[in-house]
Amino acid sequence: MEAFIKKEECTSKIDTEVLTSSSSAVYGFFDRTTHLSLSMTMMTPPPLDQEDDEMLVPHTDFADGPQPMEVAQAETASTVENQPVEDPPLSRFTWTIENFSRLNTKKHYSDIFYVGGYKWRVLIFPKGNNVDHLSMYLDVADSANLPYGWSRYAQFSLAVVNQIHSKYTVRKDTQHQFNARESDWGFTSFMPLSELYDPGRGYLANDTVIVEAEVAVRRVVDYWTYDSKKETGYVGLKNQGATCYMNSLLQTLYHIPYFRKAVYHMPTTENDMPSGSIPLALQSLFYKVQYSDNSVATKELTKSFGWDTYDSFMQHDVQELNRVLCEKLEDKMKGTVVEGTIQQLFEGHHMNYIECINVDYKSTRKESFYDLQLDVKGCRDVYASFDKYVEVERLEGDNKYHAEQHGLQDARKGVLFIDFPPVLQLQLKRFEYDFMRDTMVKINDRYEFPLQLDLDRENGKYLSPEADRRVRNLYTLHSVLVHSGGVHGGHYYAFIRPTLSDQWFKFDDERVTKEDIKRALEEQYGGEEELPQTNPGFNNTPFKFTKYSNAYMLVYIRESDKEKIICNVDEKDIAEHLRIRLKKEQEEKEHKKKEKAEAHLYTIIKVARNEDLIEQIGKDIYFDLVDHDKVRIFRIQKQMPFILFKEEVAKEFGIPVQYQRFWLWAKRQNHTYRPNRPLTHQEEQQSVGQLREVSNKAHNAELKLYLEVELGPDLRPISPLDKTKEDILLFFKLYDPEKEEFRYVGRIFVKGIGKPVDILTKLNEMAGFSPNEEIELYEEIKFEPTVMCEHIDKKLTFRSSQLEDGDIICFQKSHPVDSDEQYRYPDVPLFLEYVHNRQVVHFRSLEKPKEDDFCLELSKLYTYDDVVDRVARQLGLDDSTKIRLTSHNCYSQQPKPQPIKYRGVEHLSDMLVHYNQTSDILYYEVLDIPLPELQGLKTLKVAFHSAIKDEVVIHSIRLPKQSTVADVINDLKTKVELSHANAELRLLEVFYHKIYKIFPPTEKIENINDQYWTLRAEEIPEEEKNLGPQDRLIHVYHFTKDTSQNQMQVQNFGEPFFLIIHEGETLAEVKLRIQKKLQVPDEEFAKWKFAFLSLGRPEYLQDSDVVSSRFQRRDVYGAWEQYLGLEHSDSAPKRAYAANQNRHTFEKPTHERLTGVQKYKRYWKLCIEVVSAGFGPLCVRSVVFYHHFQCNLAVHKKIFALGLYTGFAIERNQNAVSEIERDD
After folding, report:
1. What is the band of 697 on the pLDDT scale with cuts at 50, 70, 90?
2. Who's near 745: CB < 8 A, 6+ residues apart?
3. Which of 480, 556, 911, 1171 is in Cβ range 3.0-4.6 Å of 475 for a Cys bridge?
4. Which stretches make up the USP domain (predicted)?
5. Arithmetic mean of pLDDT, 846-863
């Protein structure tokens, strides 16, 4: 379960007391959050307010002083919470204790009573269990005699009856899973002894105390043995890490039979692979869900989405997944028998209209939808949300509508529905950005939804005039998708009634349970829940808690279409090739399952032969002798005598039993694997199982053997030669430096006292050389972590060279010193070193990062210069220093944001490593100047706003990194036309229509980031050069107000600028200068409003107000502090930000309905810009506050995953952000 603590785990105790184990102490402090501490991504609810500090503990006697404390994980509630069992009957036991004050025992037991077939009793400590309170517990009476591993779960209450006023009876409730370690559970501080023993209080009457126990025993279903198919008839989906949101959606779609049938009828072929085809993957998944007995994996489907493992551990947005999936399927259905199914099921239409009030003009636009997003905040139920959806907005005053041929007019704006789809998907807006708290929040408000939804209510108030009123828009609830948790994490599951019967089912990843309608509907409304008072009459405040589990998506099916949609789907709807494929998969799965179940009865024997060595060495492998996974494998019963196994081998290979000799393999300390010794006659008389145990200390089920077969002159098998201790079995590989080929040529038995010179003729014969060919011999010793291959002295004995059974000798022709022939790898050690380190690298142009351009075989030990030289040669480039390389991000499958610096890494292996993964991809680009020279330069893109022309021109300025802003300005002066020869320029930093900085001329350009900020250059007006002592230079920004979120939000737009205001100058005077500067027509300018804004809040000014009084400081104010705001809308068309743009053109703000993806991209881009510039999360929040972006849960998970804490290096931030940006 992702990032969520179930409600019941935090609030299952009525008095919110804390559970502890039998060794818990009541002294000292107890950390109430201990049992809630989870991993970093968990959502921890706020601690519960408690009325007292008493703890819920078992009865164990406490020693004097503090004792070690253990915390019982509050798992029971969540374990039992979902059990498909009815609430058990409640049994009450009353215990009358006479002569109570004269009890001298420390603890006192009641008589035994039976509940749920179990024996129980109540235990009290009349004088308290080392506390000044009555201590009382429920005890399993026969715990000492119960079998090992017993457990039982009970909900119970204990009470001390008030015999004067029953309403003052003290009653406390809890629940517990009893077991051998915790056979009793209850309240150490049940009630103060002073109250209990006070006759006037009514608890002790006639020296008698009456105790009541109410106990309900519930059946505990073991999660691990629970069979969803058996219990419910349905199976769940496996969670890949954070895919519960997807599982809930897939179950919902699967249980729309018409949709499932359409998916089955999509054309796929037997040659398709599920991991590369969404239709086939979905068909496969649905088939398995329909016919499997166990939960089904979704990996093939997520692979078909193009996700890797990393994506599966990131929560995505459910609505976007639903839309993307439907769009993909809709596209794949085109031209098939099921074309249009998605539209037929899910597509509805609404009409956006604007209707003038005073003239006869109406504008309408028809739009389609697959789902509807309904407001939760401020709405009590679905009907209230629909009311709000079609609410009419009046366009009047400054917000009048510009109607064609009628000019600005008062108008009404709204939405009405033309038609609703048969399957209505309602997305509830549970997540939104809270601008007051400056954070994303989840709306847990109570929000009701009906079992039947009538969208024809009140004479079709939601329908447009052209809607077909003959269609009855009465819907019945099919699915409730639930999010349980908070904004930064949670768990998703679904309540579905597949056949629209009264029986609901909860689909929670792998587990499916039966649920009642209350669980599916009422308990998913959200809001607050009030726990019942435990001590009525004492005026204690009822305890309330927020319900973090609530519905976020509803699926309704139209009553008139339900017979068509809830249709029968059987095997005849499934393509034959799919049935065959999936049945084969199922058979293979069953076969593997059977093999696994019977694995303890069998031994796997892998038999390697000379033929395998010939086949593999020099092709599949170069080191050691064989890949055991590619040899003949036998599955043999352990009881089979080995001599019978030899007969199986005889049948398989045609080698008579008497000619077979088997060798055991051994793993050496240097991690090589070689034949070690032949089996003895006594060992061959043993069973296969016994032999495996003798040969294999690792106790796995495999036995690896090498089959030695001697061949006579006629190449027929003969009896193996007798082997003595002096005989050594050696294997030989031949290397050809000219062809760079490596192959196995055979094996020879040699005598330990013999010398290599004795077998040179034989080796030449095996290699096909002339008998007198000079050859060099090398011993292949090891290859991990580095290659070790040593020359063999041919005059030393084999024993002196420390050669033994299974060793490998590599040989080649001797290479004369005076030879003209030059080879890349002239000898065996160099070739093996090359093979060990060689790497095929796929090079891609940085401009086309998805396409391989060419491949090169390189060595991991190549230096930086070696690599760029090879790339330059491949590209036909003379100067390799003009090649710049960029490494590959294995997670995002994109180039890393920062290129590799010139000689910034030592070897190719360093270029290919990304965290703990190794890639085989590099990106290249060809520069116009050498990389070392470029690295010493800084390139800035500067937007120059001309003072004499109506244009903005972007200039690229490339200067040495140590240059200053003054150098940039001087360079720019040579490229632009100035108003006069002595004009001075300044460089500004502009971000989202605000000026954040005027760069001082002495600032170094090395740290200026123009990738995310706009650098603006402009002439300094003459009036600013001669500021008077009382003059102020202020920021002036254009803005508009947006009230779409039921809150006033300021949005800036257009070009910001500076303005001088003089002491005592009124707004009327300032307005004249602004109008002249911006050249705004009188009619338009009369509509503008002027405000002083501080931290985003406007204070509107009157013409008589003295502007300078609002701006007290003389220096330039920060962009996020104070500015003079020009509020207006602009009906002029927008101009592109390029050449021919007026310096101070104000752009009309657009009011558009953004999709989730658009909101995501805008918000994400903004955060990237801020963080990548080296700012911390406070700046991110400030930008979010000012720019009012909304995003969904998935976005925030990504942002928090970045770890954007103040103090990160700028480069680190850029890397992290860019990688995730590209990943998205």
Report:
1. low
2. 732, 733, 734, 763, 766, 767
3. 556
4. 235-559
5. 92
Can you tell me which residue has the tokens 């918000």?
1163
pLDDT for 78: 31
The number of beta carbons lying within 10 Å of the beta carbon of residue 571 is 11
> Quick check: 930 pLDDT over 70?
yes
Backbone angles phi, psi at 885, to 5 degrees: -105, 150
Give dist(CA 452, CA 562) in Å, integer: 13
Please tell me the distance from the alpha carbon of residue 548 to that of residue 484, in angstroms, as a whole number: 6
Which residue type does 273 have? M
Listed residue (954, 987, 953) closest to 968, CA to CA: 987
**Which of 491, 836, 888, 1035 is labelled catalytic?**
491
Strands 452-454 and 474-486: antiparallel
Q: What gap in Å lies between CA 285 and CA 325, rounded to an integer?
A: 14
The three-class DSSP label of residue 1179 is: helix
3-state secondary structure of 868: helix
Catalytic residue list contains 1179: no
At 174, the amino acid letter reads T
CB 443 within 8 A of CB 550: no
CB atoms within 10 A of CB 473: 24
Which is more confident, 1218 or 110?
110
% residues pLDDT > 70 (the chain): 78
Name 40's Cβ contacts closer than 8 Å, sequence gap at least 6: none
- Provide the token pair at 288: 């398995």
The tens digit of pLDDT for each residue in 109-138 reads 999 999 888 899 999 999 998 888 999 999
Give dist(CA 707, CA 1058) in Å, integer.
Answer: 90
Peptide bond into 421 cis (omega under 30): no
Rounded distance, CA 233 to CA 259, Å?
A: 20
Report the relative pairing of strands 661-667 and 632-637 from DSSP bridges: unpaired
The pTM (predicted TM-score) of the whole model is 0.49
| SS3 of residue 62 by DSSP | coil
Type and span of the H or E element at 1071: helix 1067-1078
Of 2, 524, 96, 314, the residue nearest 1195 (C-alpha): 314
CA gap 278, 260 in Å, rounded: 14
Phi, psi of 272 (to 5 degrees): -65, 150
Of 1197, 1160, 1190, 1192, which Cα lies nearest the Cα of 2? Answer: 1197
Is 244 tagged catalytic?
yes
Assess whether the previous peptide bond of 126 is cis (omega < 30° from 0).
no
Three-state SS for 502-538 is: CCEEEEECCEEEEECHHHHCHHHCCCEEECCCCCCCC
Question: What is the Rg, in whole angstroms, of the alpha carbon atoms belonging to the chain?
Answer: 40
- Residue 811: name the closest of 787, 777, 782, 781 by CA: 777
Write down the catalytic residue from 10, 244, 326, 810.
244
Are 896 and 912 in contact, with CB atoms under 8 Å apart? no
Mean pLDDT, the chain, rounded, equals: 80
Are 97 and 208 a contacting pair, CB within 8 Å? Answer: yes
What is the per-residue pLDDT for 540? 54
Tokens 């499932």 belong to which residue? 260
User: Are 508 and 223 within 8 A, CB to CB?
Assistant: no
Helix pair angle (1193-1202, 1156-1172), 10° resolution: 20
Residues 6+ apart with CB under 8 A from 775: 760, 763, 764, 767, 769, 811, 812, 813, 814
**Phi, psi for 710 (deg, rounded to 5):** -90, 140
- Quote the tokens at residue 1129: 């809308």
Token output for 57: 């503990």
